[in-house]
Amino acid sequence: MTSNPNPSFDEIKWVIQIRRTLDEELEDYSEVPVCIFNVPKTLMATKPDSYVPQEVALGPYHPWRPELYEMERYKLAAARRIQKYLQSLKFHSLVDQLSKHEARIRACYHKFLEFNGETLSWMMAIDASFLLEFLQVYAVKEGPVLTRVSSRMSHIVDYSGTKSAHNVILRDMVMLENQIPLFVLRKVLEFQSSSLDQADYKLCSMLAGFGEDLCPFGMTEDLPEIEVAEHAHLLDFLYHLIVPRLKEPSELMEVMENENESSEGEEGSFEDSSYVHQLFEEMCKILSKLNHGPVRIIKNIIFSKPVKLIVKLPWKIVSNLLGFAILKYPVEYLFFSQNDENKPENRNSISKSNIIKPPLIEEITIPSVSELSKSGVRFSPTNGGISSIAFDAKMVTLYLPNVSLDVNTEVILRNLVAYESSNASGPLIVTRYTELMNGIIDTKEDAKFLRERGIILNRLKSDEEVADQWNGMSKSIRLTKVPFLDKAIEDVNKYHSGRWKIKAGKFMKRYVFSSWQFLTFLAAILILLLMTLQAFCSVYSCRRIFKVTTHQ
Fold first, then answer.
1. Distance, C-alpha 349 to centroid of its chain
2. CB of 190 closer than 8 Å to CB of 183
3. Model confidence over 470-491: pLDDT tens digits?
4. Does the reported pTM lie above 0.70?
5. Long-range CB contacts for residues 542-545, cutoff 8 Å, separation at least 24
6. Which residue of 44, 159, 449, 507 is surrounded by the most CB atoms within 10 Å?
């Protein structure tokens, strides 16, 4: 006989609950999308405090935890206040009203809820009462939509949002596992209001102030009209406030196909040795100005017929000559890497891979702010949110949205990433944005640079704390492609890697400092040339042949 792995599990109770659910469910809510999830374990492991409520539990995922039970008396105080407001009606009438939507409430949660219907209805009614008590702080900004906060809750809820308890509760409210369906808040307000329109007006007023206060990006001035029915919960409302509406995948594919067609016919051949000719011409110009001692010997060697013949040959032939094979990859890296990327067939294959496959790890790499600044890239703030990110190659300017960082921002962004990873079927836009910021900010100097440019509004203690915050949000569930973000990253990398200063540095690091074979080859060639020159000069008069004159 097998033992039960969970001793506290009541099999009989489970069977009774399943049977009642199947028998009593009158309406089919199978089409209601799941919108409240458990945080993925890979994200939860990075920083649990950002995903697990620290002060107040809302909903059925973290009820009756001992460390959160202290807030239950404030929840009950909010429920009494609503009951007092109802006057002739009792609070349990609201609970009965919510019990009619039990199946719909359960359908919103990814986790199977083991509570019975009555417990779940009471939990929703009390938690929604507390949540509305807290949210009314933001509605006050547009007038007396609701009465002021009760004196019992005044030390944890304030209009300025400066009290520490206020911020802790605010962070708990935006956590993915601490969400309540927005239609429940709507039902509670409707129960208190004379009409559904009045309830929607109150809730819209609260959401507008809530979004304005918590949105990290300066884009709430043109806040679109809020449709309460279109949002699943508070975190979902914040997500759609921040994330732009992207084109359909079919439209994106058509745009990329058009770009591929327009790029056909552009010149680009690996066989072209124009870069080598340009280098040879520049060397000639420099050496023509020098005419003393060993320089003249070098000039005679470079301008000799064998060297001129080699330079005129195609690179494919030159690279296969004896002694030149070891130089093939370094020279190709320096002179032909960018030309090879511009080949039409390569661009087409890259574009197709962008559509079909997720990005590789290497494609997420982008130089830091300090490195980009040294290569000539400028940074400019925008007010358009994430959708305004772009790189202007002509102005050599990377446009980034101004973002405000305070004690709540990290929890907001982390839970937006968790919600997006669990719910979004398309590209992970917030995730990709955090990866971009994580890539360009490595040190406190990078954070300081962006702060001075007006891109980061730092409300934290130091620039180092800003850098640590971005660098700590690098974990993602899966790799994804976001067309407008990836184009900006690709354009920045293309400009940066195309700079001769950067290419020369990478060349020295890859083929000189880290290649003992290359250094050995150069040393052997140098010694061989010196020995040949010494033997030649011992037989013939070098001064007469190379026409070197000495000055007394």
1. 25
2. no
3. 998 877 777 778 899 999 999 9
4. yes
5. 542/297
6. 449
